[in-house]
Amino acid sequence: MIEINNLHKSYKMGSNSLHVLKGLNFSIKEGELVAIMGSSGSGKSTLLNILGMLDEADSGEYTLDGVPIKNLNETKAAKYRNKFLGFIFQSFNLINYKSAMENVALPLYYQKVPRKQREEKAIKYLSQVGLKEWAHHLPNELSGGQKQRVAIARAMAAEPKVLLADEPTGALDSKTSYEVMDLIQNINDQGNTILVVTHEEDIAHMCKRIVHLKDGVIVEDKTVDQVRASQYV
Amino acid sequence: MFNKDRWKEILEVLTSNWFRTVLTAFGVFWGIFILIVLLSAGKGLENGIMKDFGDIATNTMFMWSRATTKAHKGLPKGRSFLFKTEDVSSIKEQVPNLRFISPRNQLGGFGDANNVVRGLRTGAYNVYGDYPEIIKQDPMSITQGRFLNYSDIEEKRKIAVIGDGVKTGLYDKDEDVLGTYIKIQGVNFMVVGVYKKKSNGGDGEEGQKQIFVPFTSFSQAFNRGNDVGWMAITAKDGTSITSIKNQIMDVVKENHKVHPEDQRAVGHFDLYEQFNRVQSLFGALRFVAYFVGILVLLSGVIGVSNIMLIVVKERTKEIGIRRALGEDPWSIKIQILIESIFLTIISGMAGISFGALVIYLINTLLDMNGPVDMFANPSVSLGVVIAALLILIVSGLLAGFIPAQSAIKIKPIEALRTE
């Protein structure tokens, strides 16, 4: 599903150049649930941004579902993001003045799905994350966990190839963290490919594979026995 | 562009900060209001002055003879001469594109002694010897009877067409006028018609106190021979009288052995030139109105642009999220542009409506208090309103352009980073 070959990325900081990613190679197959771990500054967010087409690598190859991702203009990148990727952010990033349902329907709006269908689909995904009754509430009327579940529903609404989660539990307490991870595991069980960036060990062990980044290189890449989050809930 | 979601969003954004939106809109509102009011005030002035010109054929000149100021062909300077009826035919022959040439003679005038008698009543009126065409150069409406015709000219009938003012002066209120006789300087004329002129400014009263008699009868009755006092000459539409007046004057100078360079021997008044001068004044007024109005509008537009920039800044994160979710940058750009155009047009419409209301109130006031000198019926044409709307759309586009550009410059990754 995701293929990365010799990926380099550096940032210019004034006169210095900061080499963040130093030649990464790895691949993710369909249906995997991968955790990317590393301390801050290890380059994990940069990697996620490149995978999410929010940022571009300096050199190296990136193939997503057989499509080479390079030299994208903004219009094309937006189209690919919409079609291939679902984002889950640490700070949820819901749009404040839109209801939960409208937030979930947003990616479908960009696909020009007719309103009626859009709303049906949004309700469907909201009920999948257990928030059907909250569909018409604004984000600030929801708890942190609920917000993240809305965000997950939104990420899934466009039925993307890959879900990218950037510290999905970073802003949540451990109980709601586990609830969210349970949801992510369930989605993965349905066959979706998911990438989770985290620095929490317990969260990482709820995935099936852990990639450890340190100073811009992969130091460890192992499959683990998945800990089911449902046992904590 | 016209889907429901987009408009819903525009309204959400604009209403999220009511006070700011209204303040911003006020700039545009005021600009278009000033533009409309200035233009209509200019129009009011124009209407007022045009009313003073009345219905007179404006492509007209008046010409009369004066003393020569140069010796020519053995004749001394300071010599007086009079136009003759022959001059009329030679002008007709030699100068093309003329519509009417009316030779005129006149008795009486402002401040003259009484010259018209009917029974026990007398009055001082202007009496003109005229050809029938004069009614087309100096329009009047015939309220009773008829105007002069060519049979009157040929048969030198002693008939008269009197003004409404003459009628009130010489007749009782319900008296039958047609067929009665009035005595003009001792000569009886039968009244065959009554005219009424549209009142034009201060001359309105005077205009109703005139008597028209056939040119030929006038000459015979008052011993004018073939003299012509003055002429009213109208050119055909499409040829300005100003462009051919020298040609006309050359003909009469030649006929009367006046030096061709003698500028003062033939006096004239070029109505068309005056009319044009006034017209160009209105042009200048319109220019000033547009200039001031558009500048005021411009400052309003800059305000809109400024606020849109702030809105974009405020929504940086939201725009980032949308981009991450896959919104086309063009869609964002269009969104910002529509917001800006929408705001400008709505406030502009309000400005136009308010301006129209003010104009309406001024009109009602004018109607209530009677006519005012040189100002009448201020108004803006539909064309001006459409032009104002076009200006608004263009300025909305301009106002939105920079903010829209800065909105799509936001990189989603940077936008998401801002907390």
UniProtKB/TrEMBL annotation, chain A:
So which domain of life are we looking at? Bacteria
SMART domains documented for this protein: AAA
What are the record keywords, sorted? ATP-binding, Nucleotide-binding, Translocase, Transport
Please give the CDD domains that the UniProt record associates with this protein: ABC_MJ0796_LolCDE_FtsE (cd03255)
Pfam families xrefs: ABC_tran
Please give the InterPro entries that the UniProt record associates with this protein.
AAA+_ATPase, ABC_transporter-like_ATP-bd, ABC_transporter-like_CS, MacB-like_ATP-bd, P-loop_NTPase
Molecular function as annotated in GO: ATP binding
Boundaries of each ABC transporter domain copy? 2-233
Family in the record = Belongs to the ABC transporter superfamily.
What name appears for this protein in its UniProt entry? ABC transporter ATP-binding protein
Query: What broad taxonomic lineage does this protein's source fall under?
Result: Bacteria, Pseudomonadati, Bacteroidota, Flavobacteriia, Flavobacteriales
TrEMBL record, chain B:
Organism, by scientific name, is Euzebyella saccharophila
> What is the similarity comment for this entry?
Belongs to the ABC-4 integral membrane protein family.
What keywords does the record list, in alphabetical order? Cell membrane, Membrane, Transmembrane, Transmembrane helix
Q: What is this protein called?
A: ABC transporter permease
Q: Which residues cross the membrane?
A: 21-41, 287-312, 341-362, 382-402
Where is the protein found, in the record's own terms? Cell membrane
The record gives the membrane topology as: Multi-pass membrane protein
Residue ranges of every copy of the MacB-like periplasmic core domain listed in the record: 21-249
UniProt domain ABC3 transporter permease C-terminal: residue ranges? 291-412
